[in-house]
Request: fold
Amino acid sequence: MIEIRIHGRGGQGGVTLAKIIATTRFLKGDSVQAFGIYAAERSGAPLQAFCRYDDQTITNRNLIYEPDHVIVLDPTLVPLGITSGLKPGGWILINTPESPEHFGDQFTGYRLATIDATSIAIANNLGTKTVPIVNTALAGAVAHMLGFTMTSVEKALEHLGFVGDNLTAAHQAYQQVNMNAACDPEAITVEHPVIPKTFTPGFLEGGGAQMPRIITGQWAKEQPDRQQMVPPCNHVCPAGNDVQGFLAAMARNEVDAALRTLLQSSPFPSICGRVCPAPCMDSCNRIHLDGAVNVRDIERSIGDLGHAEIKPIANRDERIAIIGSGPAGLTAAYHLGRLGYQVTLLEGGDELGGLLRTGIPSYRLPREVLDAEIERILLLGIEVKTGHRVSRQGLVRLANEFDAVLIATGLQEVRSLQLGLDDTDAVVQGIDFLDQVNRGEVRVDNEDVIIVGGGNTALDAARSALRLGANSVRVVYRRTRAEMPAISEEVDQAIEEDIAIDYLTMPVSMKPLGENGRHVLTCRRMELGEPDESGRRRPVEVSGSDFDIECSRMILALGQSQDMSVFPEGTEVRENGELIGLLEKPVYAIGDLATNDGTVAAAIGCGRRSALHIHALFTGEQLLSAQHDDGDVVRQDAMRMHLFEKQARDEGMAITAEDRFQSFTEVHQGLSGEPSHEAQRCLSCGVCNECDRCVTYCPEGVLTRVGHEFIFDYAYCKGCGVCASECPRNVIFMSRL
Amino acid sequence: MGLELVTGNHAAGYALAAAGEANRSARGTACGIYPITPQTEIVEFVSKYKFTKGRVIPVESEHSAMGVSLGASLAGARSFTASSSNGLAYMFENIMVAGFYRLPIVLTAVNRTLGPPWNIWADQGDTLMLRDFPWLQFYCETNQEVVDSTLLAFRVSEDRRVLLPSLVIMDAFIMSHTQMETDLPAQELVDAYLPTLNLPHQLNHERPTTIGGLAWPQETLSQRVEVDRAMLAVNDVYEECRQEFITIFDRDPGAPIDAFETDDADLILITSGTIASTAREVVRQRRRDGMKIGLIKMKMFRPFPADDLLRACENASRIGVLDRNYAAGMGGVFWHDTKAAFQGQRDNVLIQDYLTGVCGGDVTPAMVNEVIDDLAGRTKAERPMWKGIEA
Reply:
C-alpha cells in the first residue's frame, strides 16, 4: 500500500489532488481512498489531504501518520513539519519555482522534486490570480515522480471532468518537474509521530474552543488598508467647508469645535446657515435613505451658538487693498487678516456687506446676524473706508500704493426688458427695490405687484412687497418650478404666503391703464423646448397665447452681469480672475465679478482661494489643499446604505404665514430639535468615524483599534476583504500584494 | 452506473435518489431537506437529481425538513431526508412522529459530535440519542455498505410487517468525505429490488381521517404494542430482504451483525462503523499471532440483535466493546445494551467498555491493540475506560 500526504491551504485544491491521484490508481484497478482533514474550512488555513492505494482491498480507516510520500502545495508550509513520520527514501514534491538543490541538505534521506505549479496554473487561467488552483498541474508532476504514465493521469482527469487548460497544465508539469532522486535513507531515523493524549481543561477552567491563529505569510495575496475619502458634501461645497468635519463635531455636541472647523474656511456660518442654497444637501447620500441631513440649519445653529476667538496668526508688512465688501471681499479680508496682512477694505456704499445687506431682506437674514459676522472679521484689524467708490484711475493708484489689489465689486449691470415703460416708476429693478426695502425707503401699500424672474432676487422682492402692504403679489417666470434658480425652501415659503407664481409665462409689453397709476402687462405662454447651454430646457413661445394682467408696478429680477467699466482699457480678465495689462503688482478680480456664480457660498470660496493665492505669491506657502479628484468622492453606490437606520430629518421651524404679513421678522427659525441630534444623521461618507465594525467582523481577529489608530496584523491577515466589505462608509480598501 | 470513486455522502445521495425514482410509477418521491456539515453533499446530490415524479423541497430547518417528509410519506410518496448532529436534535420532535405514525422514511444520518463545544467530527451520540424511538438503526462501515443498507432499509421499512422508519448511519468525514471505490447499482436493478410504495394508511380524500389525534391510554398502549411486534418482525424481514438483495445485486448487503472469527474465540471485540475495519485488521494479526480472538461488527443497532449476539459469543469469556459514543453518567451505549442482552443469559462473561474515538478522535491499530491487551489481562470488568486521553 502506498500512502501520500498532501499539505496545502484551504482553497488550493488539495483534496481534489488526492482524488486525482486516487482516481488514477482506481482506473488501474487498485483499491483506493482519498480524504481530507476538515475543520472550520477557512480559505487559506493549512490543511492536509490524504491518498492511499493498494492492489489489495484497503481496510485501514485511519489518518496517515507515516506516509510514503509528501506533496506540498504551498512552499510557506515547508517549515511546518512536512516530513513528520515520512518514511526514509520517500519523495517530497514541493510547489516552488526553486530547484531541489535550493533546499540543500534540508531533506537528507528523502528524494526531492520541485515544480512551479503556481506559474503553470496562472498561465493556464486556473483558479484566480489571488488563489491559483494548482492541483491539476501537480497531478502531472506526481505522475512523473511516481512513475505513472501521463496517459493514466489524463484518463483520471477526464474521468473527473477536467478538460482543456487543466490537461495542458498537467502536461506542462509532467515535462517540467525537477527531480533529484539521490538520497541516503540510512542517514536518517524517523520518529514515529505521537498522537497527543493531552487533557485540556474546559469552560470551567477558562478553556474551550479557541480559534487557531494562522500565520498567512506569503499566502495572502491582498491586504486591507484604511484610507480617508471625500464626502460628497465636502466635494461640492463652493465655500470649501469641511461639512462632514463640522457635522461630526456637532454630533458630539461640541458646538465650539464645530464653529472652529467652519471658521477655517468661512467667516459666515450664521449667514450661510440662512441663505446658502446648500448644494451639500443636494449631494447628501442620506437622500437615498430618508432625506438629506439638514446641513444648512445645523450650520446656522453652530454660527449662532458657538464661540470662537479669531486672531491673526502672524504680523506681516504687505498691504493689500480690497475693493468691495460683499461676501467675496469680506472673506478675502478675513483670511488675509488672519494671515497677518495689512488689509484695507474699500466700500463704495456707506455700510459693509454688499449684496448681503442690500440684496437679501432681513426676514431671511436679520441685520444683527450680518453685523455680528462682519464685526468678527473687522476685529482682525481690517482698515475700512466706506463711501469710497474706485474709478479707473483710482484702481491704478491703488495698484501703485498697495502690494496687491483684489477687486470684488460683484455684478453691477442689471438686465432690463424694453416693454414700453422702462424709464418710469412703473418698472423697478429688483436689486434697487431690495436696497430701498432694506433702507426702509419704500412701501407698496394696496399695489398689485408683478415680479419677473425666478431667482432669489425675484422671490425676495415678491415676499418683501407682500410685507410692505401690497394688495397682491404675482411672480412671472418663463420656465417651470424645476428650472427655478431660487432656493426651493424659499419658493415653498412664498407659496405659503399666498404669492402667485405664473410659470411658463413671459411679459411682452406694458401699457398704462388710464391715469390711476395702473398698467396692463401683456404676457405670453411658453413651453419647454430643447435644453440650452445651461442644461435647462429652453422656453419657447406659444403663439396666440397672449393674455393681460393688471398691475401697479413691475419689478425686474432678471439677473445681473459684470460691470467692466472699472477696469482700465485693454485689460483682460483671465480664467482665474487675474487682470492682465496693469502693473507688475498682483491685481485680481474675485467673487461674482470674476466667476458670476451668484451665491454667497461661491463668493466665500473665491475670496478664500484668492487670499491663499496671494499668500502663496508672497511666501511660497501653499495653504490651499489640492482639488479633490472626483474619483475619491464616496457616492451612494459605495456606501452600505442597508447598515444605517432611518431617522426622521429635522426640517426646522418657521413662523406662520399670518405672522409674516407686515413684518420682517425672520421667517425660518432654525432646527426644531437639538442640533447634535440632526448632526448625528450624518453618515460620515468616506470618513472613518471609528464605528469599529471592521474590527468586529474581522474573522481572523487580526484588526484592532488603539486610540485613533487601526492596526492590521498583516502576518495573520489572510486578505479575505471582510473588513472592506463590511465598512459602512467605504474607507477600507484591498490592494494586491 | 457501476464501480465509481465516490464519497460516502455521494453514495448515500445516489441510493436515496435511486430509491425515490423507483417509486415513479406510484406516487413518486417527495421530501424536505436541510443542509448541515458534514451531510451537505447529500443535500446537494438529491437536490440536483431530476426525479421523473416528485421533488426534493429545500426548507428552512431540520424540523421542517422532517415535517415535509412526514406529509409526503403519509400521502404515499417514497420519502427520505438526511441530517447530522445538532440538526438531528432540532428535528427530534418530528423524528418521533415519523416512528409513531409508522412511516417508512429513510433518514441518512452522518454521525457528528453534538456541540458544544462546536465539533464536526465523528461521534455516534447524535443517532444514539434516538435509540428509544421506533426507528431501525443501521451503522455502516464502507461507502458500499451505505448504498446497500439504504436500499435494504427502504425494503425493510416498507414491509407491511414492519412499517417503521430507518436511520442509515455513517461516520463523519471518515466516510462522508472519503472517496472509495463503490458500486452504484443501475436504476433498473433498484427498480427491480424496490416495489412501489403502498402505504396502508395513505391519506385518501375519499376517506378523510385524522392521524395522531388524542388517544386514551389504552389506545396509545395498543399502538406501542404494535410497534413492539413490528420491531420483533424485523429480523425475519431483514433476512428475506437481504436474500433478495443478493439475488438482484449479486452482493451481500450484510447480516444485522457481522461476526469475524468468533466461532472459537475466547475474547471478542464488539464495535460498529469504521472502527470495525481497523479492528478487523488488528484481530486478523492477533489471530496470526495465535490469540483466540474474534470481532463482531454491529450493523443493526435497533432493533437490538441480542439473540444473534449471544449466539456469536457462545464460546467467549471476555468481551470488549469499543464505543464511539458516551452516554453521560453511564458509558458506551453499545456496551450498555450488550450487557443487558447477556444479563440473565450468560452472567459469567466479562464485558468491559472502551470509549474509543469519542468526539472524533482517530482510532488507530495501536489503540485497538491496547484494548486487546487490557481485555486479555482483566479479571473483572470496571467502569468504562477512556481511550485517547490521559483522563
About this structure: The mean pLDDT of chain B is 96. The CA atoms of residues 81 and 107 of chain B lie 5 Å apart. Chain B has two domains: 2-249, 259-386. Chain B touches chain A at residues 5, 37-38, 116-118, 120, 173-174, 177-181, 274-275, 277-278, 280-281, 362-365, 388-391 (CB under 8 Å).
